[in-house]
Amino acid sequence: MDILAIANQKGGVGKTTTAVNLASALAHRRKKVLLIDLDAQGNATTASGLDKRELEYSIADVLLDDLPIHEGIVKTPNGFDIVGANNELSGSDLHLSQKPENHAILSKAMQQLADMPAKNGRATKPYDFIVIDCAPSLSLLTINAMCATSGVIIPMQCEYFALEGLADLSQTIERLKSLNPKLHIRGVLRTMFDPRNTLANDVSMELIEHFGPILFNTIIPRNIRLAEAPAHGIPALDYEMNSKGSQAYIRLANEIIKQSRQFQLA
User: Fold this and answer.
1) By its UniProt entry, which InterPro entries does this protein fall under (predicted)?
2) Domain of 57, in residue numbers
3) Which pLDDT tens digit goes with each residue over 101-149?
4) What is the pLDDT of residue 117?
């Protein structure tokens, strides 16, 4: 089971777009996928076709009220499962801070997935991939994601200050290795890329120079279909499979599947 946290302390970098469309692309590759929405805005939940106001249970119930995580799992119409989020997650840091081992609550909850109840006498197939959409902050929620994951995917725009932000996040991940020794950066993903933009090309070249070994080959283009799809409550792959954005996420999924085989995680 490969657990991937999509994280960046900066907002507006395509984090949720990446989480939803990566989950969708992996599902299109016949992988069993669970998406966990760890952002109180619940945008990943909405973009997956669910009404966050009508969730029977959310990730807040799992983290704050000890609900078994499998009870919060909902099947989406897009081929993957989700534990959704809504505004019940707002202010959760205060409640989490009062719990023992508050950095490991999500990790312990996810351990239950290996022991999901059998259905009709048959064992439930474990997930190949779990994708966690983190909030754009270094909150206790994000720390929980970092402690539960086997790798972090960092989406970032090729813009001014991007390298500085990436360096800061890399240092944060290094510090958190004391809580999760397996934590590492799985890859840096260039998003919303416009090849006509000189600055974007310059920053991309600097990323190759300084972070080449952890840079995904796939580049996510700035694409209108990626922007439109969430308004329809579906991933871009189900909105327009042949769009440049959808095809980019399929290539990213292929890269990640190859990585997972190398790490023997999926």
Assistant:
1) AAA_dom (IPR025669), DNA_Partitioning_ATPase (IPR050678), P-loop_NTPase (IPR027417)
2) 2-263
3) 999 999 999 998 876 655 555 556 789 999 999 998 889 999 999 999 9
4) 58
- Residue 236: how many other CB atoms lie within 10 Å: 28
Closest CA to 26 of 149, 123, 127: 127
Question: Dihedral angle at the C-alpha atoms of 113, 115, 121, 122, nearest 10 degrees?
Answer: 60
The pLDDT assigned to 257 comes to 96
Global pTM value: 0.93
Lookup: tokens for 116: 């999901």
CA distance linking residue 33 with residue 247, whole number of Å: 19
Mention every residue, 6+ apart, whose C-beta is less than 8 A from residue 62. 68, 69, 72, 83, 106, 109
The SS3 of residue 96 is helix
Cβ-based burial of 123 (10 A; exposed 0-12, middle 13-18, buried ≥19): exposed
What is the count of structural domains for the chain? 1
Cα–Cα distance for residue pair 257/129, rounded to 1 Å:
9
Distance CA 159, CA 146 (A): 25
β-pairing verdict for 81-83 and 73-75: antiparallel
146-200 confidence digits (pLDDT tens): 999 989 999 999 888 877 888 888 999 999 999 999 999 999 999 999 989 999 9
Please calculate the CA angle 247-250-256 and round it to the nearest 5 degrees: 145
Give the three-class secondary structure for 233. coil
